[in-house]
Specification:
By secondary structure, this protein is of the alpha/beta class. The chain has helices at about 5-15, 45-60, 90-95, 125-140, 170-175, 175-190, 230-240, 260-285; strands at about 40, 60-65, 80-85, 100-105, 145, 195-200, 205, 215-220, 225-230, 250-255. Helix 4 (about 125-140) links the parallel strand 4 and strand 5 (about 145). The longest helix has 26 residues, at about 260-285.
Length: about 290
């Protein structure tokens, strides 16, 4: 497998990209009659968004999921409402909120078509941050759980002219320096918003069964190139709906599992092949 394919798969992952005692205990704030409450999930069709929605429904939450193409989610449930919206459209965000639910955002930038090229100027995260804050303040929502990345901690200065080293990780951080810079600025917006917040900085996420091995680094110090599962990340995310343990903190999430780029990209390419076959089969059935 050549380096270009490896980097392409890694970009696709990185951009998308019961817990141990170190992760904290879930607060007992559940209404026995009405279930654990209501959440609105921004970015419902993101990999992480899908898993969070499934787990939330299993736990009894009432969920509103917002996405640009909500029909792609493929989940139907009596406690799930899907709405069409875009983080660049503040009115669509307002329309998705009732005012009393916790807001969870899993929106990220799509992988570039050329994996070896630098990612240019990015404003997705700061525009999203500004619009989410405005929508929540307008509707009266108080708590925001926002997906960020460990890349914020290890980002390269936007004025850099070359990678810091020769590894794929060094190349990625250099090529994505504007992306992570914009993400860091979004974190600052949220920190200064007056909202209750938890900033989640996950490591490299993999589509494996839950390992229950998440570790936490608060406000910096998250190790590089460690993997966590989407299942564990989703569970940790939902714990923050009621818990105040990491309130108004940036939380790095990692494990002792070292990332194996070749193995993860191989799995990613196999998943893409299976998804393509599934889509082709569905198209044939419609003919």
């Amino acid at each position: 497998m050549n380096k270009r394919v490896l980097i392409s798969g890694l970009m696709a992952y990185l951009l998308c990209s019961p817990l141990t005692a170190s992760a904290g205990a879930h607060a007992e704030s559940v209404d026995a009659d009405n279930g654990p409450g209501r959440i609105t999930l921004i970015g419902a069709t993101a990999r992480s968004g899908r898993v969070i929605i499934r787990q939330a429904l299993e736990q009894g939450y009432t969920v509103t999921g917002l996405a640009r193409s909500p029909e792609k989610l493929g989940i139907e449930h009596e406690r799930l409402t899907l709405v069409r919206g875009d983080v660049r459209d503040v009115e669509s965000l307002k329309n998705a909120l009732e005012g009393d639910e916790v807001v969870i955002c899993m929106v990220g930038k799509s992988a570039p078509s050329d994996p070896s090229a630098e990612i240019g100027k990015v404003d997705l995260y700061t525009v999203m941050g500004e619009n989410l804050i405005a929508a929540m303040q307008a509707k009266g929502n108080r708590r925001l759980i926002m997906a960020s990345s460990t890349g914020v901690e290890h980002r390269v200065d936007r004025d850099a002219t070359a990678p810091e080293g020769d590894s794929m990780s060094d190349a990625w951080r250099f090529n994505a320096r504007y992306l992570y810079g914009d993400m860091a600025d979004m974190e600052t917006q949220i920190e200064n918003s007056g909202l209750e917040y938890v900033l989640l900085r996950p490591g490299f996420m993999v589509e494996d069964p839950a390992r229950n091995d998440i570790q936490v680094a608060v406000d910096g110090g998250t190790p590089k190139q460690r993997t966590i599962t989407y299942e564990d990340f989703a569970e940790f995310t939902l714990e923050q709906v009621h818990s105040d343990e990491y309130l108004n903190k940036a939380v790095g999430l990692y494990s002792d599992q070292i990332m194996d780029p070749a193995a993860e990209v191989k799995k990613f390419l196999e998943q893409m092949r299976q998804q393509k076959e599934k889509e082709e089969a569905a198209s044939e059935q419609q003919l």
